[in-house]
Amino acid sequence: MVIAFFLVARLLLGFTLKTAAESAKLAAMPYQLGQFWVRRFRQQAEKLCAALATLMAPPTAPDYPSRALLMLESIAWIAAHRFLLTDRRFHLLGWPAFLAPGGLIVALPPDAPST
After folding, report:
1. Mapping DSSP to helix (H, G, I), strand (E, B) and coil, where does residue 73 land?
2. For residues 84 and 90, is the Cβ–Cβ distance under 8 A?
3. CA-to-CA distance for 110 and 65, rounded, in angstroms?
4. C-alpha closest to that of 38 among 76, 9, 59
5. For 62-96, how does the pLDDT look when each residue is reduced to its tens digit (9 = 90+)?
6. Is the separation of the CB atoms in 84 and 91 below 8 Å?
7. pTM value > 0.85
8. Is residue 29 classed as helix, strand or coil in its secondary structure?
9. Cβ atoms of residues 24 and 18 within 8 Å
10. Within 10 A of 82 (CB to CB), how many other CB atoms are there?
11. How far is Cα 68 from Cα 84, in angstroms, rounded to an integer?
12. DSSP character for 85?
Protein backbone atom coordinates (compact mmCIF):
# COMPACT_ATOMS: atom_id res chain seq x y z
CA MET A 1 0.00 0.00 0.00
CA VAL A 2 2.99 2.31 0.50
CA ILE A 3 3.80 2.13 -3.21
CA ALA A 4 0.12 2.74 -4.00
CA PHE A 5 -0.02 5.90 -1.88
CA PHE A 6 3.21 7.14 -3.40
CA LEU A 7 2.17 6.50 -7.03
CA VAL A 8 -1.25 8.10 -6.59
CA ALA A 9 0.31 11.16 -4.97
CA ARG A 10 3.02 11.48 -7.64
CA LEU A 11 1.19 10.51 -10.84
CA LEU A 12 -2.47 11.38 -10.18
CA LEU A 13 -2.16 14.31 -7.82
CA GLY A 14 1.03 15.70 -9.35
CA PHE A 15 3.00 15.97 -6.10
CA THR A 16 6.76 16.26 -6.24
CA LEU A 17 8.76 13.12 -5.46
CA LYS A 18 9.54 14.46 -1.98
CA THR A 19 5.95 15.45 -1.20
CA ALA A 20 4.62 12.14 -2.59
CA ALA A 21 7.07 10.24 -0.37
CA GLU A 22 6.00 12.26 2.66
CA SER A 23 2.32 11.58 1.90
CA ALA A 24 3.11 7.85 1.83
CA LYS A 25 4.85 8.20 5.22
CA LEU A 26 8.29 7.70 3.61
CA ALA A 27 9.94 10.99 4.45
CA ALA A 28 13.41 9.42 4.48
CA MET A 29 12.92 7.50 1.22
CA PRO A 30 15.81 7.88 -1.24
CA TYR A 31 14.93 10.06 -4.24
CA GLN A 32 16.14 7.31 -6.59
CA LEU A 33 13.65 4.78 -5.21
CA GLY A 34 10.76 7.11 -6.02
CA GLN A 35 12.12 7.63 -9.53
CA PHE A 36 12.45 3.85 -9.94
CA TRP A 37 8.84 3.19 -8.87
CA VAL A 38 7.49 5.88 -11.20
CA ARG A 39 9.60 4.75 -14.17
CA ARG A 40 8.71 1.06 -13.73
CA PHE A 41 5.01 1.80 -13.25
CA ARG A 42 4.92 3.95 -16.38
CA GLN A 43 6.59 1.15 -18.36
CA GLN A 44 3.97 -1.36 -17.16
CA ALA A 45 0.88 0.89 -17.35
CA GLU A 46 -0.38 -0.09 -20.81
CA LYS A 47 -0.09 -3.83 -20.10
CA LEU A 48 -1.61 -3.30 -16.70
CA CYS A 49 -4.65 -1.56 -18.21
CA ALA A 50 -5.10 -4.43 -20.67
CA ALA A 51 -4.95 -7.03 -17.90
CA LEU A 52 -7.33 -5.12 -15.62
CA ALA A 53 -9.80 -4.56 -18.49
CA THR A 54 -11.11 -8.06 -17.79
CA LEU A 55 -12.32 -6.77 -14.40
CA MET A 56 -13.71 -3.39 -15.44
CA ALA A 57 -14.10 -1.04 -18.37
CA PRO A 58 -11.08 1.27 -18.63
CA PRO A 59 -11.95 4.82 -17.55
CA THR A 60 -11.20 7.89 -19.59
CA ALA A 61 -7.80 9.29 -18.63
CA PRO A 62 -5.12 11.41 -20.29
CA ASP A 63 -2.52 8.61 -20.32
CA TYR A 64 -1.96 4.95 -19.44
CA PRO A 65 -0.41 5.55 -16.01
CA SER A 66 -3.40 7.65 -14.95
CA ARG A 67 -5.83 5.11 -16.38
CA ALA A 68 -4.06 2.23 -14.62
CA LEU A 69 -4.07 4.08 -11.30
CA LEU A 70 -7.78 4.89 -11.62
CA MET A 71 -8.49 1.22 -12.38
CA LEU A 72 -6.42 0.06 -9.41
CA GLU A 73 -8.19 2.53 -7.13
CA SER A 74 -11.60 1.41 -8.40
CA ILE A 75 -10.92 -2.33 -8.13
CA ALA A 76 -8.94 -1.97 -4.86
CA TRP A 77 -5.20 -2.35 -4.96
CA ILE A 78 -4.86 -5.59 -3.03
CA ALA A 79 -7.65 -7.35 -4.92
CA ALA A 80 -6.22 -6.17 -8.25
CA HIS A 81 -2.70 -7.19 -7.31
CA ARG A 82 -3.87 -10.66 -6.24
CA PHE A 83 -5.72 -11.03 -9.54
CA LEU A 84 -2.68 -9.95 -11.51
CA LEU A 85 -0.29 -12.22 -9.66
CA THR A 86 -2.42 -15.37 -9.55
CA ASP A 87 -4.27 -15.27 -12.85
CA ARG A 88 -1.99 -13.27 -15.12
CA ARG A 89 1.48 -13.65 -13.64
CA PHE A 90 1.92 -9.89 -14.00
CA HIS A 91 3.57 -7.53 -11.51
CA LEU A 92 2.67 -3.87 -11.05
CA LEU A 93 6.25 -2.72 -11.39
CA GLY A 94 7.38 -5.47 -13.75
CA TRP A 95 9.48 -8.49 -13.01
CA PRO A 96 13.14 -7.81 -12.35
CA ALA A 97 15.49 -9.38 -14.88
CA PHE A 98 17.02 -11.68 -12.26
CA LEU A 99 13.68 -13.52 -11.92
CA ALA A 100 13.45 -14.29 -15.63
CA PRO A 101 15.54 -17.21 -16.91
CA GLY A 102 18.64 -15.80 -18.52
CA GLY A 103 17.21 -12.29 -18.14
CA LEU A 104 14.76 -12.96 -20.99
CA ILE A 105 11.09 -12.13 -20.93
CA VAL A 106 9.06 -15.30 -20.59
CA ALA A 107 5.59 -15.76 -22.08
CA LEU A 108 3.40 -18.08 -20.05
CA PRO A 109 0.87 -20.22 -21.92
CA PRO A 110 -2.77 -19.27 -21.34
CA ASP A 111 -4.69 -21.19 -18.71
CA ALA A 112 -6.31 -24.38 -19.93
CA PRO A 113 -10.07 -24.01 -20.38
CA SER A 114 -11.97 -25.41 -17.44
CA THR A 115 -14.03 -28.50 -18.12
Report:
1. helix
2. yes
3. 25
4. 9
5. 999 999 999 989 888 778 777 776 654 555 566 55
6. yes
7. no
8. coil
9. no
10. 11
11. 13
12. I
